[in-house]
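no rush on this but wanted to send it before i forget. what follows is a protein written twice so to speak, once as letters and once as structure tokens for the fold. mainly i need to know what kind of three dimensional shape the backbone takes. thanks a lot i owe you, the record is right below.
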Amino acid sequence: MSDNNLKGAEKMEVLQNLLTDEFIERIKMGEAEPSLLNAARQFLKDNGIHSSLHQDDKIQDLVSVLPFKDAEEVVAKTN
């Protein structure tokens, strides 16, 4: 089947797979500049991929020292 025959949902799935593969390849090769890492982070968030943190998790240590809050958390608190 050629790309011209793909339906909208199929095109989106192909595009999502290509984008995912590109993120993985560039990150593994060490070619991920900060903007690419941010785009990958946002891509995961937009697709409902979240990491659960445990209190003893090293990532939690990093989160606790970051100088900013999640935008959704700030919006929720102001409403």
About this structure: Residues 26 and 65 are 27 Å apart (CA to CA).
